[in-house]
Design a protein that fits this description.
about 425 residues; alpha+beta; Helix Hairpins; BirA Bifunctional Protein, domain 2; 2 domains; eight-stranded mixed sheet; three-stranded antiparallel sheet; about 40% helix; RNA-binding
Length: about 425
RNA sequence: GGAGGGGUGGCCGAGUGGACGAAGGCGCCUGACUCGAAAUCAGGUUCCCCGCAUAAGCGGGGACGGGGGUUCGAAUCCCUCCCCCUCCGCCA
């Protein structure tokens, strides 16, 4: 949610940004509703003040044991009038909020307007001296992932990790959690569902309703990213200023319907309905949130680097930003067999956009203000898994275990 | 799922229809005392919205779990939903 004061003085700018980000919100209607709303608030407040006077007068008389039917009748009428005004105000406010929730965040000045900007490539260009197998074929051959049985249990694109596949997946999760915990992040293990209010708080709703799994009876949504559950951990709270930045790391399973994305290029682990992710999240002071963004980016890069994978960092252009983000870096790892870059991490500063929706504030001596929220995958496992299989496979059909994962796999150097 | 009890400010806790400030305590801030601190004393200490001034501020309105209602007037009465506790039932 945007700052209303900013919105009121920047209608045209907001209109432009909404367009650039590919959203369609009727800004003119919003502007009109805001005007009507404020007019009505003024009117209601004035009449309420009047009624408060009358009410106090009546109370005073009552205490003296007296009565004034005329005064009460006047108050009765005024009260009825206010009821009508407030009813109108409520309906206008509802419309106003409804529209407001569809406005994406404003963007940071450094965000490109046209093309993604590749900031750096890290790690040597890597080629196998033999004909490598793509991750799908290799994983099935080693019995690590059973896509057919996964589909039997749930549906297509619900991968079933099995044997060494399951162990490697768990090793990855545990390794990354430990990595970030050692570097000062507080670990949380959150619910894998969240309610409607939480989803509005981080900006998944209203826009992404169709992209999430919904549990109708309880009106829960399956967690699409721990960004949601961790951000809402402090919803409607006042955080002490000296505690910022508050850094969390969370493992969650993530669920996405991926509506409309079936077809080519979705074989294997590239695009799945359920996946694992270790997420970093920061509640930061507004004055230091862009330093925090760089910090989180570095944190995610370090974990990928430690796995010995080649990657690049991309600064996303305006039209590729997520709804709540003001600035986003993507990290993509190199898959040497399929010869492509795969996104494994998204590092974003949402500034006060989510904090405003979710009412997450901090207190200083003289005022209160919204925190800035930042999230970074640290990182998502499926495509990391792909990169590992494609990078570390050997001509004899075995897989070399990346060194940092060996302690999590009984010290094993090769699979099987 | 059933029965009962509860949800009040940063925290504890009083308050069952009317008094400008929701008592009191704790914590915190400022000042006095002190070489300094503790103790003591005095004062201050919620958030949101609208408007004016925008450096602090001032005026008005609203908020006692959320929403709705009764009433001239609701923390207090009614309806509804959520959450916590106790007991019972069911169940992994």
């Amino acid at each position: 949610m945007l700052d209303l004061k900013y919105l009121r003085t920047n209608w045209d700018k907001v209109k432009h940004i909404v367009e650039l980000r590919g959203e369609s919100v009727d800004i003119d209607e919003l502007k009109q509703l805001d005007h009507q709303r404020r007019q009505l608030v003024k009117e209601c407040d004035t009449k309420r003040a009047e009624l408060n006077h009358l009410t106090r007068e009546i109370g005073k008389l009552k205490r003296e044991g007296r009565d004034d039917p005329k005064l009460i009748e006047t108050a009765r009428q005024l009260s009825a009038e206010i009821s009508h005004l407030e009813e109108r105000l409520r309906s206008i406010e509802a419309k106003f909020m409804h529209l407001l929730l569809w406005i994406p965040n404003i963007v940071h000045a450094s965000v490109p307007l046209d093309e993604p900007k590749i900031l750096r490539e890290v790690g040597k260009p890597f080629e196998h001296k033999f004909d490598g197998l793509d991750h799908f074929t290799f994983a099935e051959q080693l019995g690590m992932i059973d896509f057919v049985r996964g589909a039997k249990i749930a549906g297509s694109n619900f991968p079933l990790y099995i044997g060494w596949g399951a162990r490697l997946e768990r090793a990855l999760i545990n390794y990354m959690l430990d990595f970030h915990v050692k570097r000062g992040f507080k670990e949380v293990f959150t619910p894998f569902v969240a309610n409607r209010q939480s989803m509005i708080g981080t900006g998944q709703l209203p826009k992404l309703e169709d992209d999430m799994y919904h549990i109708e009876r309880e009106d829960f949504f399956l967690n699409p990213t721990a960004e949601v559950t961790v951000a809402n951990l402090h919803r409607e709270e006042m955080l002490p200023e000296e505690k910022l930045p508050l850094r969390y790391v969370a493992y969650t399973a993530c669920f996405r319907r991926e509506a409309g994305s079936y077809g080519r290029g979705t074989r294997g682990l590239k695009r799945v309905h359920q996946f694992n992710k270790v997420e970093l999240f920061s509640f930061a002071h507004p004055e230091h949130s862009y330093e925090e963004l760089e910090f989180l980016l570095n944190e995610a890069e370090e974990v990928i680097k430690s796995l010995g994978l080649r990657y690049r960092v991309v600064l996303l252009p305006i039209h590729e930003l997520g709804f709540a983000a003001a600035k986003t870096y993507d990290i993509e790892v190199w898959a040497p067999v399929s010869r492509e870059w795969l996104e494994v991490s998204s590092v974003s500063n949402c500034e006060a956009f989510q904090a405003r929706r979710a009412k997450i504030k901090f207190r200083t001596k003289h005022r209160t203000d919204y925190v800035h929220t930042l999230n970074a995958s640290g990182v998502a496992t499926p495509r990391t898994f792909i990169a590992i299989l494609e990078t570390y496979q050997n001509p004899d059909g075995s897989l070399t275990v990346p060194e940092v994962l060996r302690p999590y796999l009984d010290g094993k150097k090769r699979i099987p």
